[in-house]
């Protein structure tokens, strides 16, 4: 197990580390592996120190032929909330509310089912990124999916309009307005220039 990537919330007061157990090629979303390995780890940031709050892993057990583990994602810019969409390989896409970082919970998901039921086969969603009302997800075997999310809990995100998106960095966004990618944010966010390294990983 190892930390594969890191994603901050918009205020930079929380960080999610993803544990890509098995390197993305193993079946880890099952009862044998359990809920804490191959999962997200949530930490609050206070006075420059990390405080562990809890784990999240998709609640659906996957078949032994399905590679499944926490992987790449991005924030959905909802005012007053911390919400993220994330890829889990053949575990599909998961939308997670981590406003309470000790009780991260799934509020939506999309899953096709196993690419093969006969033998292990690598596949599923490698990444899932939110951009101006849509989720753009890359599937190993099927290509690009563009998914529209219609849910009252994420409707506020439609008010945020990005001028561009580099998924390897994290520009902060102004809640209810434009993003800070080109300096359009308000005074509270305009001097951030993003939250450091953003998403590492493969």
TrEMBL record:
Residues 160-202 are annotated as: Disordered. Residues 175-194 have a biased composition (Basic and acidic residues). It comes from the Bacteria. This is LVIVD repeat-containing protein. It comes from Streptosporangium subroseum. The lineage of its organism: Bacteria, Bacillati, Actinomycetota, Actinomycetes, Streptosporangiales.
């Amino acid at each position: 197990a190892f930390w594969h990537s890191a994603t901050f919330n918009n205020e930079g007061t929380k960080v999610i580390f993803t544990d890509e157990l098995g390197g993305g090629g193993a079946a880890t979303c099952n009862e044998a592996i359990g809920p804490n390995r191959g999962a997200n780890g949530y930490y609050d940031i206070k006075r420059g120190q990390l405080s562990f709050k809890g784990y999240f892993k998709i609640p659906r057990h996957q078949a032994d032929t399905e590679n499944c583990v926490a992987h790449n994602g991005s924030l959905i810019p909802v005012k007053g909330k911390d919400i993220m969409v994330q890829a889990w390989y053949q575990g599909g896409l998961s939308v997670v509310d981590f406003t309470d970082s000790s009780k991260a919970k799934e509020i939506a998901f999309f899953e096709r089912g196993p690419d093969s039921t006969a033998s292990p086969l690598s596949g599923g969603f490698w990444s899932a990124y939110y951009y101006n009302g849509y989720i753009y997800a890359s599937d190993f075997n099927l290509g690009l999916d563009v998914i529209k999310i219609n849910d009252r809990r994420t409707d506020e995100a439609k008010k945020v309009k990005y001028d561009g998106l580099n998924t390897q960095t994290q520009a902060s966004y102004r809640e209810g307005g434009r993003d800070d990618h080109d300096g359009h944010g308000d005074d509270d966010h305009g001097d951030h220039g993003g939250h450091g390294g953003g998403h590492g990983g493969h």
